[in-house]
Amino acid sequence: MDKRVRALNVELPEQQLITQFVEYLAFFKKITDNSRLAYQRDLRSFQHWLSESNSHLLDVDNAIVTQYLLWRIDAGYKPNTNARTVSCLKGFYKYQLLQRTIKQDPCFGLKLPKNIRLPVSVLTSSDVEQLLAAPDMETALGARDNAMISLLYATGVKVSELIGLRCHDLDLSNSLLTIIEDKSKKAKQRIVPITHEASICLQQYLDNTRKVFLKEEDNQWLFLNRRGRNLTRQAFWYRIQHYAQQLSLENNVSPQLLRRAFAVHLLENGADLKQMQKMLGHSALSSTQIYSQISLYRLQSVRN
Known about the structure:
It is built from twelve helices and three strands, in the order αααααααβββααααα. By secondary structure, it is mostly helical. It has a three-stranded antiparallel beta sheet, with no helix packed on it.
């Protein structure tokens, strides 16, 4: 079959979806001719952007829509046109839900408000690399701190979860970490993948460093202090502050900031929002969507 004919056959259903939606708005919502043309342009622009990665209008999720908005902001589109695009996509996918052409709304909870009201301080990839390189690996303290920072950035765990880890929570052969979310309900847990780099750091810590701190053989806490006890969250916070001051980083570095960097950096690289929700342990998707909004705000502030 001729490539042009095949391309037209693929695009025709999408054009019909756009036409049906715009006709629906014209008939039931009584939108003006200018609004109808604007909706058509917005949807065709999105369709064209999707076609470059062989994606379809009905096969997108929240992460893909967010990536599209990030691309628009990075490309220099004005805030008012981006806000109109958000409104258009929301309306289009609500209509598709009514038509039962999709099962889930990829725009659920998506918004691009004019005023920034969220914390937008995020460590850059360069900041994180400097933090990881700051501990002196020739010392036991430095090797331990490097392993903790590596694991925190690789998984996005909360600091309370990090310092509460036990050795058996690690499965380095499969690069997995088990988090017990509620100690009183051991059945409530989540499994988080660990990056290859973090796995190497942790294996080196277990093989060479942890035994330097270990005072009692039956101690199962993963991260220990000089007295052989599990490290406290306050102590770890001070260790991060120590390295941040050495590096003169502008951000007020904290474990929470590393968790935020983990989420924002992954989303900016196309991570699936629902998978991120599971990894972060959020019960509501709206909690995870905050990180998508932070990504949008960051790029928008750069452009503005």
